[in-house]
Amino acid sequence: MEPVSAAVSAVLPAGGSGERLGGATPKQFCGLQGRPLVSYAVRAMERVSWISDIIVVVSPENIETMKSIVEKYGHKRVTIVKGGITRHRSIFNGLKVFAENQSSNRLLQKPEVVIIHDAVRPFVEEDILLKVVMAAKEHGAAGAIRPLVSTVIASGEDGCLDHSLERARYRASEMPQAFLFDIIYQAYQQCTDHDLDYGTECLHLALKYCKTNAKLVEGTADLWKVTYKRDLYAAESIIKDSLSQQICIITDVKEAVVQAGFLLHESLKNQVKVEAISISLSKNDSHLQNIFSGECYNFLCINDKEYATEEIQQLVDMLEKSNVPLLYPVVLILVHLNISENISFSIGLEELTKIKKFAREVKKKNILVYGLLIQYKVTERTWHIGGDTNTPIKANFCLSWRQKDLSLQHPLYSQKLSKVNNFVWEMCSANRKT
Amino acid sequence: MEPVSAAVSAVLPAGGSGERLGGATPKQFCGLQGRPLVSYAVRAMERVSWISDIIVVVSPENIETMKSIVEKYGHKRVTIVKGGITRHRSIFNGLKVFAENQSSNRLLQKPEVVIIHDAVRPFVEEDILLKVVMAAKEHGAAGAIRPLVSTVIASGEDGCLDHSLERARYRASEMPQAFLFDIIYQAYQQCTDHDLDYGTECLHLALKYCKTNAKLVEGTADLWKVTYKRDLYAAESIIKDSLSQQICIITDVKEAVVQAGFLLHESLKNQVKVEAISISLSKNDSHLQNIFSGECYNFLCINDKEYATEEIQQLVDMLEKSNVPLLYPVVLILVHLNISENISFSIGLEELTKIKKFAREVKKKNILVYGLLIQYKVTERTWHIGGDTNTPIKANFCLSWRQKDLSLQHPLYSQKLSKVNNFVWEMCSANRKT
Predict the structure, then answer these.
(1) Among residues 405-434 of chain B, which lie with CB inside 8 Å of chain A?
(2) Spans of chain A, pLDDT less than 50
(3) In terms of Cα–Cα distance, which of B354, B352, B411 is closest to B386?
(4) What does the pLDDT look like over B327-365, one tens digit per residue?
(5) What phi and psi, each to the nearest 5 degrees, are found at residue B66?
(6) Is the pTM of this model over 0.90?
(7) Which of A56, B28, B43, B349 could form a disulfide linkage to B14, CB 3.0–4.6 angstroms apart?
(8) Residues ≥6 apart with Cβ < 8 Å to B352
(9) For residues A22 and B263, which has the higher predicted lDDT (pLDDT)?
């Protein structure tokens, strides 16, 4: 179901010089967790299925940089357009591509509604995009607004306070904004050079030249613009935070394994949002597909087979197909339960080599695999946990212990799972911290 | 020399509920690196020698919390005052303390100029405080301003855009602000209940009731107000950043030691701002005193004596007296050079115990001591570096190696100092990361 019954495309001006940031790199190209800011903003648009084309307007000297970003992060719906010397001129260039079909790569369909968003506002959600698009369809123009954080004042010519504005009457105009394409394009065509050189606000142009009073839509705090260095810090922390917020525990349908999954769920749920599902990995489970599309970046897969290579490969394939690892690294923790009595603790050297090789391979796909072996010998009442992360990951981890006098609530798992819990937590956090 | 020839005090309203932050803890009490935000703001005021009294106004339920903060972080010039239900009422309560001498603790002198600053703007510098105070002396009122980040718009009753303001004509009104005490107090005395309940801007009151047009002073980007959760992230990153930006290398005046200090300086200077000084610690060196007052938090002390306990104790005493460890933890790395041929590598168990005990003691004073032993045996061309951080710090570190074929530029130190460099870097970073 398409929530929007209109052709919608987006223009992202990304031509700014980032002078307020105080660095040499324009802010839209600054890396957050190694990925440029503009790529997050593009991805935020690409996630929305009803946005057809995404025009990214960059200054001439950054076209090659932008091309390599599109390639590296697999952006599919992006057209790169050469910007002008001001923000308005860049947006106008972006709009022209639709009107004049001048793009050399392919023909772009003129949209009914065009979204204008900033490359430096990476956290825009589908919800607010939908709201401004629907409002633009009805009113011709719409834009997100936020309450003012500071009082706004006007200064006199002597550098002294002339008057302060009543804060409740005013709002900060933010992005995204959306317009009926014909309205905003017509407004730009009528613009004076003064508008193009000194103005910044598209809503103002729609009002001035097309008498269109934009509908104002209350946005969330996430919409703020990365302006100063502190905003880069904040954006990076928000990304790290969201990465470690959720974990999905996947088990097959055998009782012992499901039980372990349940206990892990209980023990982890104080720290993160946990979703536990029992599935047969051999079938293409729709529940799992939903989770993949729900932006979860941590997976824990419990099995009791000896290195269930096929199942793991399948999981990796599904993850890859889901495009989840395109945006952020995905952590995949393989927990192998061994509850038989006669197998020795140590993992065979051959198996270890195999797992390590596998982990190295999938790391290239931005999936970080960790292995964990849990063995329970009923006769000795001894628990072992062996973590193998001599895999491709920076964090080193090796843990094993014996405990003679366990008073386990559940004969097999229970208490010691808090150690697994810690392991899981550490692994999920490890690559966020770097 | 006092830069301000007037009695100056400050009022910090800290009564907010922090609802925009979305958390249970009001933002001024949120911890950054374990220390509440309000304590940073207070400390920013306390660093300025010409500010006499600092009134912190908190809501009744937070008075005990604030008291414990004052005690824990050793704030000396703070008077806690009970706030009102709005920001203006809280500021008024703060001002009344000076006018009515109603504080039960002690008599507070009525200042000529009063600074009003927010508890949630922790990075205010002496420079801008001085500017607003001087401007207030001349004009009666003054406040910091910043350019607007977003366009400000007025909405009509239908929720649509009415008009947008010309961005260049307007400014965001920020803190700090300063007033001749009599002016702002008189303004508050004339305030209506509506002003006290719905207004937020002191400059506006001075204009409305005392016809005083405040002088507007361009502030730096640091002055921003911690409003949303992302601002807490940003503030924490800024603090961490500033902590690891500078290191001071202290050596005694012996040639070999000075030489090592010089090479370390060369090798570290790509990563941090390094200041290297050679002093005789037995004298109270004024250069060192300057560095202590210049907000350096990392010290590396090189010596070639066997555990120069006295010198180290002296350094710790100086650090303590300087109040530097009051705000942030201080890292003190002791590097002991051993260039004699006949002493074995290992540090004696007795010495180790002694150093560990010492480190445990000074940790209570917020000084984190790390030890590093470097031994060079000319005959074997062998380097050893032994790091003892089984001291009070979380990070574990132990490093030692041999290298047979060193092609040292300098016979004694040079290349291998890059390892020391790494050690230093790790230690300085370790407690910032936690």
Answers:
(1) 433
(2) 1, 345, 377-417, 431-434
(3) B352
(4) 777 888 877 766 555 555 455 667 667 777 888 888 878
(5) -65, -40
(6) no
(7) B28
(8) B388
(9) B263
Strands B78-82 and B51-58 come out as: parallel
| Alpha-carbon gap, residue B268 to B424, rounded angstroms | 9
- Any chain A CB within 8 A of the CB of B397? no
Per-residue pLDDT tens for B99-126? 886 555 557 889 999 999 999 999 999 9
User: Does residue B170 surpass a pLDDT of 70?
Assistant: yes
Task: Choose among A156, A173, A213: nearest Cβ to B213.
Answer: A156
Residue with more model confidence, A373 or B420: A373
* Interface membership of A163 toward B (CB under 8 Å): yes
The tokens describing A47, both together, are 């996630």
B154 CB neighbours in chain A (<8 A) are 169-171
Q: What is the pLDDT of residues A18-49, one digit of tens each?
A: 555 555 788 999 988 778 999 999 989 998 98
Could you tell me the sign of the dihedral formed by the alpha carbons of A379, A380, A383, A385, in that order? negative
Please say whether the beta carbons of A373 and A351 come within 8 A: no
| B213, B227, B231: residue with CB nearest A161 | B213
Contacts of B430 (CB under 8 A, 6+ apart): B393, B394, B395
Helix ranges, A168-272 (H)? 181-190, 193-198, 202-210, 229-243, 255-268
Q: How far apart are CA B424 and CA B429, in angstroms?
A: 9
**Residues 6+ positions from A350 with CB-CB distance below 8 Å:** none
Residue B228 bridge partners (DSSP) = none
Q: How many angstroms separate the Cα of B166 from the Cα of each of A200, A204, A289, B201?
A: 10, 10, 49, 21
Q: Is B394 helix (H, G, I), strand (E, B) or coil?
A: coil
**Per-residue model confidence (pLDDT) at position A102:** 56
For A118, residues 6+ apart whose C-beta sits below 8 A from its C-beta are A12, A13, A14, A41, A175, A225
- Exposed, middle or buried: residue A132 (CB in 10 Å: 0-12, 13-18, 19+)? buried
Q: How far apart are CA B79 and CA B12, in angstroms?
A: 10
Give φ, ψ of B389 to 5 degrees: -125, 25
Residue holding tokens 């928000």? A238
Per-residue model confidence as pLDDT tens digits over B18-59? 555 555 788 999 988 778 999 999 989 998 989 999 999 999
- Predicted complex ipTM exceeds 0.85: no
Here the tokens at position A339 are 């509850």
